User: What shape does this take?
Amino acid sequence: MIGKVYLIGAGPGDPDLITVKGRELLALATVVLYDNLAAPELIPHTAKRVYVGKKKSDHAMPQQEIIRLLIEYAQQGETVVRLKGGDPYIFGRGGEEVEALAAAGIEFEVVPGVTAALGLAAYTGVPLTHRDHTSSVTFVTGHDPAKIDWTRVGHAETLVIYMGLTTIGEISQRLIEAGRNPATPAVVVQRATTPRQHTIFTTLAELPTIAEAHNLKPPATIVIGEVAALRNKLDWFEKRPLFGQTVLVTRAEGQGEEGNRKLRRLGAHVLDIPVIEIQPPEDPAPLLEALQNLKLYDWILFTSANAVTRFFDALFAQGKDARAIRAKIGAIGTKTAAALHTRGIVPDNIAAEAVAEGVVKAFENESLAGARVLLPRAAVGRDLIPIEFRKRGARVDIVPVYRTGVPQESVEKLAQVDQVNWITFTSSSTVKNFLALGGRRLLDQGAKAISIGPATSETMRAHEIEIALEAADHTMDGVIAAIHQPFPC
Ligand code: SAH
Assistant: This one.
C-alpha cells in the first residue's frame, strides 16, 4: 500500500504553537523529514527522523533530494510528515514539494502553521495591522533584494522582511531611495517565540548598523512600519520573570515534564539533562524473598516513587497484586503517596516532610516495638530510618529494589551546554551524578546552584558546590518558587 505525505507547519519556534491537527498527525508519523527551523522536540520518538536541514549557507540536502525522499518513503508505505518551520506555504518551498507529490501521484495533505511574522507579532508586541496606523501588510523575502521592485513594495504600510538579515544594508538603502521615510520605526527579531528571542527596536535608516552592532544571526525577521513603535507598550513575552534565564534541570528518573513546563511559562530557557538512570538491583534475590514473605510484615515503608514502581512491577511479575499485602503502608511524601494511589493503595502514614527525618517524625506515634518493617529502596540510601526504627524495637529489612546509574549519553549533552544561569539539584544523587558527568565546568563558569532541601544541600557542601538558594518547600515547585523569587522580602 502506498503511504501518504503530510506537509505540516511546525510554527515559528515555540513548540506549543503547532496546530492541534499538526500535533495529532505527527503522532501517527512513521517518518519525519524536518529542517533546522522546526523544533525537534515536536518529533515523536516512535518515528524515524530524517534531518534535511536547510540553512542559507549549508544546504544539508538539495531540494530535489528532499522531494525524492518524500516520494520514496511514501511509495514504501510510510506515513510521512514533512515538518517545516512556520507555515509551509510562506517562503518554505512547500509549494514545490507538493507539486512534485501531485505529479508523482502521491496522496498528500497540508496543515498550515503560524508563520514567523505572526509569531513575532504576538510575542514582541507588534500588531501587523492596526486601525490607527496601517491597513495593509506585505511579506517579502530579502533573499535576493535585486529581484524585488522596492518602489512598489516599499510603500506597504507594514513591511515584513523574511531572510533579510544579511542583505539589510541594501534593502534599507533601496527603501529609502524609493521614498520611504528613514525615520520609520522598525524591529529586528531574532529567534522569535523562543526563550532566546531578541528584539531590537530601531528605525529604517539605522537597521543595518543596529543589526551589525548586535551581531544578529538568522533566523531573524524585520518589520518596518508605524506599528513597530507599539512594541514599547505591548511587549509581554520578554517581560516574564525568568525571561533570558537559562535553567539546567538535572532530571531524576520519574520526574515529569511538569516542572519544566512551569519554568518555561515563567519565561526560562530550560535545559533538561537526565542525570539518573534507574537500573534493576544487582541481586534480585532479597526482593524476591521479601515478596514471598510479604504476609510477615507489619509495615512496608516507601521512600520514593521509584521504589513504589519497582516494588509493584516485581509483585505484578509474580502474578500478585496489592491484595498480597497485609502490612500497613507508609509513604515519604505526596509524590510517593500518589504513586501508591495509582496502584490502589491509600497509605496509612504519609510523612508531611519528604525527607528521612520527616518519616521518623511521622512515625513518632506508631507502635514499632516488635514490628516487622520492610523498606524497599535504592541499593544505596541513607540509614537514618532503619537506625531510628530499630532503636524503637522494630525489625527492619532493607531490600534493594533498584539502583541508580549515570546515563552516559548525558555526557555529550552536557558538554554542548555553553551558558547557564541556574542549575537545579533535587537529590544527593543528582549532585553526584552531575559532577560525574562533567558538570563542574558550568558551576565554575558562574552558574548558580539551587538545592531542593537540607540533605541535598549537605551533599552539595561536601562537594564544594556553593548553594545560591535552598527551597523552603522541598519539591520541584519549591525549587521553582526559589528561582522565581530569589530575594524574599
Ligand atoms: N516557512 C517559514 C519561513 C521560512 S524562510 C515561516 O512561515 O515562518 C526562513 C526565514 O523565516 C528566516 O530567515 C526568518 O526571516 C524567518 N523565521 C523563521 N523562524 C523565525 C524565528 N523564530 N524568528 C524570526 N524569524 C524567523
Observations:
- Residues 89 and 419 are 35 Å apart (CA to CA).
- Residues 63-75 form the longest helix (13 residues).
